[in-house]
Every structure is written in structure tokens, then in C-alpha cells.
Amino acid sequence: MAWTETLTDTRNRLRTLYKTIPNVTKGFGAMSKAVKEEGVLDLKTKEYIALGIAVAIRCEACIALHVEMLVKAGATREEIADVLAMTIQMGGGPATMYAGKALECYDELTAA
């Protein structure tokens, strides 16, 4: 799987959705912005939580977007792996399968 293609495809689908239901997506965007900017946890910690949820609910597009944000936030492979370990503990076998995908995504997005 090419994770960069997943990101491109996801963004293209989201652009179409945003044009189709702009009021809903603007509201969701405002909520997303507020969650990231407010509160006591830093953005990187919040993205770790989001990645754990994305893996647990098996959303590949979500995995790609949150891994990309974590790469930009300076997350290390070891930190990602620790988050994935906790997600596996909570999510069992299915989370294990998607944790492998998340680590693969990280490796692809950080390959130079």
C-alpha cells in the first residue's frame, strides 16, 4: 500500500464532501480546530490518542492522516510503537493487524 496515495485520495474525497455539505463540514472543522488548540494536552499527545482510536476502529484513512500529523509533530518510531502497543492491548487481534499498517505508514512517510 502506498500511504502517500492514501493521503491524496483521502484529501480528494474530503474536498468533494466539503463542497457537498459545507455547513456540516465547517462545523466539524471548527470542532477539530478547537480540540487541537484548547485543553491541557499538547497536540502531539492528542494525535497519539487519535492514532490509537484510528487503529482500534480500523480506519486506514484516519491512520494515514494522524501518522502524518505525528511525523510533522516530531514523533519517533519508538513513540509510535508504544502507542500501538497500548492500542493492541485494548483492541486485540484486529488492532494488531492495523497497528502493523500504522507502523508501515510511519516508515513510508519518514523514509528519506
3D architecture notes:
With 112 residues, the chain is mainly alpha-helical. 86% of the residues lie in helices and 0% in strands. The protein contains five helices and no strands. It has helices spanning 3-20, 22-37, 43-57, 60-72, 77-110. The mean pLDDT is 96. This is Carboxymuconolactone decarboxylase family protein. Residues 22-103 form the Carboxymuconolactone decarboxylase-like domain.
List keywords for this structure.
112 residues, mainly alpha, 86% helix
Could you write a compact summary of the structure shown?
InterPro entries: AhpD-like, AhpD_core, CMD-like. The protein has helices spanning 3-20, 22-37, 43-57, 60-72, 77-110. It is built from five helices and no strands.
Sum up the overall morphology in one term.
globular
Portion of residues in beta strands equals: under 5%
What percentage of residues falls in helices of 4 or more residues?
over 70%
What letter string, H or E per element, gives the SSE order? HHHHH
Largest sheet: none
Question: Roughly what is the average pLDDT, rounded to an integer?
Answer: 96
Q: Quaternary status of these chains?
A: single chain
Structural class, judged by helices and strands?
A: mainly alpha
Number of strands: 0
The whole-angstrom Rg is 14 Å
Q: Compute the separation of the termini in Å.
A: 18 Å
**Tally of DSSP helical segments:** 5
Low-confidence stretches: none
Protein name: Carboxymuconolactone decarboxylase family protein
Domain Carboxymuconolactone decarboxylase-like: 22-103
Pfam family, one: CMD
InterPro entries: AhpD-like, AhpD_core, CMD-like
